[in-house]
Specification:
CATH architecture of the largest domain: 3-Layer(aba) Sandwich
Number of strands: 2
Strand order of the largest sheet: 1-2
CATH superfamily of the largest domain: Glutaredoxin
CATH class of the largest domain: Alpha Beta
Order of helices and strands: HHHHHHHEEH
Strand content: 5-15%
Structural class: mainly alpha
Distance between the termini: 43 Å
Length: 152
């Protein structure tokens, strides 16, 4: 993590402090990992979970596993356990992870992110405008309204 922070020129301690504060304001726990795990397979399995109508739940489970429990989200075992915890087939999850079945889908998503110069998650995009990072509800509402959405 320290090497990544140095290479990308960001203040790791400030970032972690901000995450902890946002999490605390939302009543959530946050664990700062010393490692950044390769999330490639987590992204691929999240596409599979979405196809199986569990995309949001799987995203939430990955977030909790990584940022609250400090788990290695590059691990097939961890990812398969997360899938099973949502009622998805653990065995099928392992097969999906081994197959690269959703590799092209994730490649396309990542290429789009590079093309749009998106470097952080979450990043919200509307009409080519970006809002980066976890934001308070009021900021999200302002962003959406500023980009042409109408209140109902």
């Amino acid at each position: 993590m320290k090497q990544v922070a140095a290479e990308r020129e960001f203040d790791r301690q400030a970032m972690e402090s901000r995450f902890k504060n946002i999490a605390a304001e939302s009543g959530l726990d946050f664990v700062a990992n010393e490692k950044i795990y390769n999330s490639r397979k987590a992204h691929e399995l999240s596409v599979w979970a979405t196809v199986n109508h569990q995309g949001t739940a799987f995203h939430n489970a990955i977030f909790r596993a990584n940022y609250v429990e400090g788990k290695d989200i590059s691990s097939t075992e961890v990812l398969a356990d997360l899938a099973a915890s949502l009622g998805l087939s653990r065995e099928e999850a392992v097969k999906v992870l081994a197959s690269d079945q959703f590799k092209d889908h994730v490649d396309q998503d990542w290429e789009l992110s590079r093309d749009m110069d998106i470097l952080a998650a979450p990043t919200f995009v509307m009409d080519k405008m970006k809002l980066v990072g976890a934001q308070p509800y009021e900021t999200m509402v302002r962003f959406v309204l500023d980009n042409g959405a109408q209140r109902k």
